[in-house]
Amino acid sequence: MSDFTAKDYKKGQPRWCPGCGDHFFLASLHKAMAELGVAPWNIAVISGIGCSSRLPYYMNTYAMQTIHGRAAAISTGAKVTNPDLTVWQVSGDGDGLAIGGNHFIHAVRRNIDINMILLNNRIYGLTKGQYSPTSPRGFVSKSSPYGTVEDPFRPAELCFGARGRFFARAAAADAAGTVEILKAAAQHKGAAVCEILQNCMIFNNGVYDYLAKKEDRAKNAIYLQHGKPMVFGENNEYGLMQEGFGIKVVKIGENGVTLDDILVHDAHCMDNTLQLKLAMMDGPDFPVAFGVIRDVEAPTYDEAVHAQLEEVSAKKKYHNFAELLETNDTWEVK
Questions:
Q1: Would you state the pLDDT for residue 251?
Q2: Which phi and psi (to 5°) does residue 81 adopt?
Q3: pLDDT band at 2 (very low <50, low <70, confident <90, very high)
Q4: Other Cβ atoms closer than 10 A to 143
Q5: Can you give the pTM of this predicted structure?
Q6: HSE-up of 221 (CA within 13 Å, CB side)?
Q7: Cα 44 from Cα 61, distance rounded (Å)
């Protein structure tokens, strides 16, 4: 049982628009931290630039708002130099996947032990409503008045393509679901990517209306749990079955389909083929996957760096600067 409460991690008065998904996420992060029980002074929350990147100001932990797109790079430095620190890196879809895209994929590839939060509202909010790397093709915005002619990044695809070992997703309005994936991310050793689907009330209102309410998520989302059948629906009447190299939605009890025919989720499978298919599902033909989709162990960058330093140091004749000087040739100058 943790000695901390959510209040121990709170600081200041958030300055976001009323109804912004950032409010919901911040409350869930405070709650997750309290349940994890890591002391505030052993945590660093690091962000880039954007609406969501104001979040460190509202954390009673070590906190730093950095420069645009560089949150992952600075989080990497913080973790490598302070291996006992729990690092949370917070970015929006613009900060994290546009100017910060290169840092994002390499932090994932290196498997640095940081918790990477991607708050995805599919818009640039701070700069007043331009389309972002996750805005859909045809999206009309201030910077695409006739509709964007680009295809978007899909964060799951980017994470998996960078050899990501952990990927989870939640809706910001779903506090319980968000807390659960944040706790799982913190307990995972390595780069843990959590995509949070959230609303921008001002510039992209309603983008996730089909997932906003509990009853909507029952119809349009599936909550994946390791070792449990992949079922969803208001009464868990639907499920996912394998069809060739793909998957399909079936109704349990129809056409001879039973619960035994439904796929069982394996978040720990090293082969990410099925996990990627689950992460890429979207309406109207498929439910959106929530929960921990992938959670696989692998060596972490920060531990490997420290192990290498210890190995190299052990072979050296010197262990500090004074010893270094004494190992080299010396001359007496008269």
A1: 97
A2: -85, -15
A3: confident
A4: 15
A5: 0.94
A6: 23
A7: 6
What DSSP string runs through 257-299? --GGGSPBP-TT-S--HHHHHHHT--TTTSPEEEEEEEE----
Query: 148 — phi, psi (to 5°)?
Result: -70, 140
Mean pLDDT for the stretch of residues 105-116? 98
Mean pLDDT within 217-238: 97
HSE toward the beta carbon, residue 34, CA cutoff 13 A = 16
pLDDT in tens, 54-109: 999 999 999 999 999 999 999 999 999 999 999 999 999 999 999 999 999 999 99
**What number of residues does the chain have?**
334
Nearest one of 22, 31, 176, 181 to 90, comparing CA atoms: 22
pLDDT at position 165 over 70: yes
Residues 6+ away with beta carbon under 8 Å from 200: 20, 21, 51, 121, 122, 123, 125, 207
Sign for the pseudo-dihedral over CA of 160, 212, 259, 253: negative
What residue has token string 């952990």? 166
Q: Cβ(293)–Cβ(278) under 8 Å?
A: yes
DSSP 96-145: IIIITHHHHHHHHHHT-S-EEEEEE-SSBTTTTSB--TTSPTT--BTTBT
